């Protein structure tokens, strides 16, 4: 292994460790907004943990941005395959999104289906209908899911890492305690979404908190969308509040 690779691996390990520590700690802290009271001490602790976690994740920002900016030619959709639009779990290398077979869910109509505990890493989900799908405890790594409909979907305790969500609809979605890192939320609709205790990297915080649809209350949990994402924390990131 070259010295350069060793340094990169060390940085990745450090970033992962710091992010994991902050994420686990945040789960025990109170939620902003609603009927929960938050003392100045608790507020300061939450801000500190969030800032440390975001700094750790930023060590991987260059690699993530390079991945998201790549232009890839995808194979044509095989609409003759009767088993194409089904959730399948990969048994190998989740972090690298390697699969035995390409999981092509583009333009699939899968509203109301169950993807709990599924590893759907490396899947193509562009222009799919995933309305009210439950992704609880699921893993989405290096997934392309732009221009898709996730209205009312439940991502509780899920992981979405390096996912292309650009221009997708998350109206009324639930991201409670989810880990959302290095993903593209540009142009998404998050009205009435719930981000309670979700861990967001600094770029996602910046994009989401400046999104005009970051408003309303989740119809299931009652959580305030803007407050649940921590957008009221003035020094959580360099974004501009609405």
TrEMBL record:
The keyword Isomerase does not apply. Keywords: Repeat. It comes from Cladocopium goreaui. The lineage of its organism: Eukaryota, Sar, Alveolata, Dinophyceae, Suessiales. InterPro entries: 5peptide_repeat. It comes from the Eukaryota. Pfam families: Pentapeptide. The keyword Repeat applies. This is Thylakoid lumenal protein, chloroplastic.
């Amino acid at each position: 292994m070259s010295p350069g690779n060793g340094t990169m691996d060390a940085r990745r390990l450090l970033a992962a460790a710091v992010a994991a520590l902050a994420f686990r700690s945040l789960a025990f802290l109170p939620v902003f907004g609603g009927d929960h009271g938050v003392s100045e001490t608790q507020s300061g602790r939450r801000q500190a943990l969030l800032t440390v976690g975001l700094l750790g994740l930023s060590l991987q920002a260059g690699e993530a941005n390079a991945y998201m900016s790549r232009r890839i030619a995808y194979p044509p959709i095989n609409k003759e395959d009767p088993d194409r639009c089904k959730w399948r779990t990969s048994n190998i290398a989740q972090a690298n999104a390697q699969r035995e077979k390409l999981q092509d869910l583009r333009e699939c109509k899968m509203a109301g289906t169950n993807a709990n505990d599924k590893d759907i890493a490396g899947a193509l989900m562009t222009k799919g209908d995933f309305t009210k799908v439950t992704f609880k405890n699921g893993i989405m790594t290096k997934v392309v899911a732009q221009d898709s409909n996730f209205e009312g979907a439940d991502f509780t305790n899920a992981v979405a890492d390096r996912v292309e969500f650009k221009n997708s609809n998350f109206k009324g979605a639930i991201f409670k305690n989810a880990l959302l890192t290095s993903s593209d939320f540009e142009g998404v609709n998050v009205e009435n979404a719930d981000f309670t205790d979700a861990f967001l990297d600094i770029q996602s915080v910046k994009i989401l908190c400046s999104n005009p649809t970051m408003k309303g209350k989740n119809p299931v949990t009652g959580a305030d969308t803007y407050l649940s994402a921590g957008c009221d924390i003035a020094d959580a990131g360099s974004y501009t509040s609405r």
